[in-house]
Design brief:
single chain; alpha+beta; Alpha-Beta Plaits; two-stranded antiparallel ribbon; two-stranded antiparallel sheet; 2 helices; 13% helix
Length: 79
């Protein structure tokens, strides 16, 4: 069975560089249309695609602001 994951992004720390979106092989992330407190449009998890996360950690690795956390879910654990 494929590994499942969950991504959390601190929207107020994200400066909207979008590197994480480009690095996601499952296309789980997208740019938010609402600005954060600094006026940037941060990345966010797409609610339609969040279950496709494979916990690869690419988004975490490329994030220059260290605002992303990736969790590996146990089998049967909900996203």
């Amino acid at each position: 069975m494929a590994r499942k994951g969950k991504v959390l992004i601190s929207r107020d720390l994200c400066k909207g560089c979008l590197l994480c979106i480009r690095s996601c092989p499952a296309q789980v992330l997208e740019q938010d249309t609402e600005p954060n407190k600094t006026g940037s449009h941060p990345s966010k998890v797409s609610r339609e695609k969040e279950e496709k996360c494979v916990a690869c950690g690419n988004c975490f690795e490329v994030c220059p602001d260290i605002c992303i956390t990736v969790y590996t879910l146990e089998e049967g654990e909900a996203v």
